[in-house]
Amino acid sequence: MITDDPPDESIPTYPEWTSEKNIMLSSFFWGYVSLQIFAGQLAKNYGPKLFLTVAIFTCSLFTALVPFFGSWLGSGGVIACRVIQGMCQGFLFPSVHNLLSFWAPLIDRTTIGSFVYAAAPLGNVIAMPITGAIAASTAGWPVVFYLYGAMGMCWTVVWVLTGSDSPSKHKSISPEEKKYIEADLVMEDRKTIPTPWTSIFTSWPFWAILIAHCGQNWGFWTLLTEIPSYMENVLGFKIASNSYLSSLPYFVLWLLSLVMSPLADWLIARQTLTLGKSRKIFNTIGLWVPALALISLIFVESTQKTATIFLLVIAVGFNAGVFSGFNVNHIDISPTHSGTLMGITNSLSNIFGILAPLAVDAFKSMSGYGEEKYRSCSSGSWKWIPPNALQDERSTAPANPSTTEKPLWNIVFGVAAVIYLITGAFYMYGASGVIQSWDHVVSDDENGKKKKQPV
Q1: Residue 313 CA, distance from chain mean position
Q2: In whole angstroms, what is the distance from residue 220 CA to residue 211 CA?
Q3: How many other C-beta atoms lie within 10 A of the C-beta of residue 9?
């Protein structure tokens, strides 16, 4: 869509959108943060299956429509699609958390939660090389959107046929499996249970989760949105090799999540660690090890490609620790309101998903980074300028962009590392693995008297 390669006349390209790239990247989050708290409440009151179905189908539809809106309305059309996609995906995490509170018994909670949420980086692993290969082929970038849109629609069909809100509503679950799942979970109707907003926002363990979530999102989304640019502009990898290398850290993230989460559950089951200590230790691994890797990147020259890629893999891969840390901690402290808690923390923390790419833009502006590869012609259209011609035209342009861009990326990595360290320390101090008192509600017994009951 926005390419540095000479345009193929049969495939539309929009080089004039280059300056708007990070606005497009961040526009997804404008919609993403807007409905999550509301989505958590809806999932608690009416069950998550319906909302997951509608949200994923609508998101998939607008994914397939991106090329059409881009050609019809320009960059504004793409931004509109991204906002709608974000609004739809805003229902995802709160609904999934609500599902986990019904389907994941305590002894398997970390493993099941990590297996579910680690599917996101696994999707990156699969999508990045496929996207790069299709975009570089004669099929062109529009096929990428058609393919992923169709896949999402197919998923909704499978989900409608096989999914359910809870074990009690599943059509084919065995009695033994149902008994195992529900053994230490209380399956109450949560629709009439009020949400204790004041207690939530005055809860220290909740704030520990929120702060950790904010820190993780800043670093994760900085790397996810900017690694391809770093690979190309600093390390000099072209689109085909770039897509494979960009996906490597997320493959390691997925693999490590499959190692760390069963290990966490095993340590809890053996009573080697309490639930709270386990969450703190693995969350610290998930934030502090990446922070150290990002700090190390500052001192590695851009010519040391192997070392740079290794550190990027560490920075992203060890983020898997958060899947066994704060990411499932909402269910630990309040299984009843876990979807709402996830909606709150994921909504507020993804504001950093908006700020991260925009901050990179700000760093670029301050450092005067970037050489335009496209310029406006007198007719008002845009013309592609080969790099060698641009170099001839601007004799002052640097011969090796990687040397001029490295200081910019040092700032990007340094900021992410500091945020990881601070938020990781906050979580280590304030987190808890104990169900909070406000997860118990006050109701009337048969005699009309007030009583507290666990839910």
Answers
A1: 17
A2: 14
A3: 7
Residue 269: strand, helix, or coil? helix
Where are the extended beta strands (E) located within 70-181? none
The CA-based angle 259-265-270, given to 5 degrees, is: 120
The candidate with the shortest Cα–Cα distance to 336, out of 202, 210, 185, is 185
Per-residue pLDDT tens for 296-351? 999 988 788 889 899 999 999 999 999 999 999 999 999 889 889 999 999 899 88
Q: Which two tokens stand for residue 336?
A: 């009843």
Domains located in the chain, CATH noted: 15-171+197-453 (1.20.1250.20)
The SS3 call for residue 192 is: coil
DSSP annotation of 371 reads -
C-alpha–C-alpha distance, residues 242 and 232, integer Å: 7
Mean pLDDT of 102-128: 85
Rounded to whole angstroms, the Cα distance separating 35 from 50 reads 16
Distance CA 131, CA 246 (A): 11
Q: Which residues are CB-neighbours of 199 under 8 A, at least 6 positions away?
A: 436, 437, 438
Phi, psi of 369 (to 5 degrees): -75, 150
Q: Tell me which amino acid residue 160 is.
A: V
Which is nearest to 439 in space by CA: 193, 275, 208? Answer: 193
Diameter of the chain by CA atoms? 89
Contact between residue 52 and residue 91 where contact means Cβ atoms under 8 Å apart: yes
**DSSP secondary-structure letter at 29?**
H
137-160 pLDDT tens trace: 777 778 888 999 999 999 999 999
DSSP result, 309-368: HHHHHHHHHGGGGGGGTGGGHHHHH-STTHHHHHHHHHHHHTHHHHHHHHHHHHHHHHHT
